[in-house]
Amino acid sequence: MNTNIKFTTPEEAVKVIKSGDHVHLSSVASAPQCLIKAMCDRGRAGELKNVHIHHLHTEGPAPYSDPEFEGIFQLDSFFVGGNVRKNTQSGYADYIPIFLGETQKLYRCGALPCNVAMIQVSPIDKHGYVSLGTSVDATLAAVECADTVIAVINKYVPRAFGDALIPISKIDMFVQDDQPLIEAKFAEPNEVEKAIGKYCAELIEDGSCMQMGIGAIPNAVLAQLGNHKNLGVHTEMFADGVLPLVQSGVINGEKKVTDKGKMVSTFLMGSQTVYNFIDDNPGVLMNDVGYTNNPFIIAKNPKFTAINSALQIDLTGQVCADSLGTKFYSGVGGQIDFIYGSSLSEGGKAIIAMPSITNKGVSKISPVLSEGAGVVTTRAHIHWLVTENGAVDLYGKSLQERARAIISVAHPSCQEELDRAAFERFGPHHTYIKMTYNK
């Protein structure tokens, strides 16, 4: 196969973008920074207006969301990352509420046009394929649907398998830019996070298939699993925390029904070590987000255990995970995809794990959600709630029963106030410490 291609510069490549176009960017560590810079230079030169940018969250600079580009670039992201949070909350960028699993559908069903897809890929192999590496998610759908695909070939992008592999015939323009992928460092879990990790780990049975995010709590959970057996991974993302368990044989996928023996993800973020881990690794499948986050595919694996976090939960079990009041903090993401999928799994467990109190001493368990807070996981979807104070199963519990259970894992300094609120709401049948108030 002829794999000879002609490279162009980032500046020449982005000339295909026209005013009014919709542009998709590879996500997380794979954001094509050289193309982003060239596109923004065109914007500063007055050559573009009303260009819509779409992506999941990205790492690194996101200048197109800055106030200076108002009327030039409009970011409508599928998830509010830290690099665009301030501008989104200020109204200079916007957010499209969407289940992560359906982000690909936006392009495939035509709800969103995709005029230009700007992606980052691994070097071309001898068969004429490149890999999307660390970011398949909705990017594969963008490649399929875009009028023009611009690919940055970067030697630092790992050659991942699964849906990540695409033929160069899918790409219209090539740019060379060898820049190391942005790495993410995660702090060591503190004592609260270690306690949460311990309670979560106790709920994970041998032979379980797992989904969890990235950060201190997932790392705390993973650190507790060294004596488990035959665990599997089917997730939307993972980071370095899984690697010791793979190396020790704890994670081997032997009990999985779908993709037996394989780790499945749609994007990842971590250190260079985890990027190296997926490079040319047939044991890892980087798949389309429409597959990884499909609740009915998730449910096929028995004992599927999904662990997700929250910003706030009320006494009826409503979970806010995307906003602080009216201010959008993140997004719907894949939480409900995996909460629902794991609840349908034979022996599955859906877990919401969070500290009971913020660093400022504010209870994350509230009588009612803050005004404007968005419900991501509904009171009908929630099963397990885990804090540093314990784990409670809310499934099948009445409102009063679950209020008592939720209060039992709240911070001790907040329990009395929460109990008062529950008594006022539910009346004399609320019996957690009812006699304190029913005098």
Overview of the molecule:
- By secondary structure, the chain is of the alpha/beta class.
- The protein has two domains: about 5-175, Glutaconate Coenzyme A-transferase (3-Layer(aba) Sandwich), CATH 3.40.1080; about 190-425, Glutaconate Coenzyme A-transferase (3-Layer(aba) Sandwich), CATH 3.40.1080.20.
- Helices cover about 25% and strands about 20% of the residues.
- The protein has helices at about 10-15, 35-45, 85-90, 105-110, 140-145, 190-205, 215-220, 245, 270-280, 290, 295-300, 335-345, 400-410, 410-425; strands at about 5-10, 20-25, 50-55, 75, 95, 115-120, 130, 150-155, 165, 175, 210, 230-235, 235-240, 265, 265-270, 285, 305-310, 310-315, 320, 325, 325-330, 350-355, 365, 385, 390-395.
- The strands form seven sheets. Strands 1-10-8-6-2-3-4-5 form an eight-stranded parallel β-sheet, with helices on both faces. A six-stranded mixed β-sheet has the order 12-11-17-22-24-25, sandwiched between helices.
- Strand 18 (about 310-315) and strand 19 form a beta hairpin.
- The longest helix has 15 residues, at about 410-425.
- The model is unreliable at about 435-439 (pLDDT under 50).
Question: Could you give the topology of this structure?
Answer:
Blueprint: E1 7-8, H1 10-13, E2 22-25, H2 33-44, E3 51-54, E4 73-77, H3 85-89, E5 94-95, H4 103-108, E6 116-121, E7 129-131, H5 139-145, E8 148-153, E9 165-167, E10 173-176, H6 191-203, E11 209-212, H7 216-222, E12 232-233, E13 237-238, H8 243-247, E14 263-265, E15 267-268, H9 272-278, E16 284-286, H10 289-292, H11 295-298, E17 304-308, E18 312-314, E19 319-320, E20 323-324, E21 327-328, H12 335-344, E22 349-353, E23 365-366, E24 384-387, E25 390-393, H13 399-408, H14 412-426
Parallel strand pairs: 1-10, 2-3, 2-6, 3-4, 4-5, 6-8, 8-10, 11-12, 11-17, 13-15, 14-16, 17-22, 18-23, 22-24
Antiparallel strand pairs: 7-9, 18-19, 20-21, 24-25
Helix pairs in contact: 6-7, 13-14
